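Researcher: Next entry in the queue.
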Amino acid sequence: MVDTQEIEVIRAAKSKISEVDFDNLPFGKVFSDHMLLATYENGNWSRGSIRPYGDISVSPAMSSIHYGQSIFEGLKAFKSESNDVLIFRPEQNWERINKSAARLCMPSIPMELFLDGMKQLVDLDRNWVPTDNDCSLYIRPFMFATDPFLGVKPSDSYTFMIITSPVGPYYSKPLHLKVETEYTRAALGGVGFAKAAGNYAAAMLPAKIAQDQGVDQLIWTDAKEHRFIEEAGTMNMMMVIGDTLYTAPLTSTILPGVTRDSFLTLARDAGINIKEESVSTDMLIESIENNSLKEVFGVGTAATTAQVQKLTFKGKTYDLPAVESRTISNSIGGLLLDIKTGKATDNKGWNTKL
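Model: Structure for this entry, 354 residues:
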């Protein structure tokens, strides 16, 4: 256990906020004044500290560099019209990071350290939360192994940190996606459900190849047959075929997205027919050709709801229905954003208010 009342707070001597152009925020390149850091050694977590954002010193033999014990989370805080700071569903991210930790043989992070430490950090830097509707404060908790040891075994020591970044929209326009049928993001029994750093490294080459071909991102398919739709880039993928909302079921290859769960919850409340089942590439292409495909979009923390306008499969590109015509993604996605920003009533108790 960690007594967060004892978290040491060392304030930055001078804020950098006056140097930031909040009207032109790139994603993930600007960082707030402070960060949280705690260490795990001899089976115990330190009390942790909030300190000025800055570089850290590590050993060249640090085991996470060599063997990949590194996990992270992503969530957002929004500024409401009444100037409250709202963090969206942080408890879900605490639960998920510990599932990732268990899969990678890392220690669990105490709730007090993760949640209360996060709230103290965000509250200290609350002026960094943008007020524009399309912007937010991106919160990045992460943990990595720190043993200076070149041996393949779980580390005995770890560092947990939280950094924050004011961000604009992740995608500025509807996307062109390519169905990937050669490279694999995740296989059954692997770590696809975890937010492991290595998952994202493995996806970079196929994504770069697609981008060199003029495509924005990939639609990942199953590792065994490349026949069933799984995720869209770094997002959970959703499709509306006829009057039914489809998304892949949660298996060991699918990240259990907090935005995914929130979107499906609101869609069920609205009476939308939902099927959490695998959609084949054959079914997807057939639905395009017979005009039963109404919507394709991704959902995730960074992008929230990202519309897909074009889809390429085996060298053929298809134009998808106009974004303006999409009833489900626009209505549910809009409601979800309104809840996050305090414009709609939070009946679920999803927001943590600071």
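Model: The chain has seven helices and 19 strands.
Researcher: Noted, moving on.
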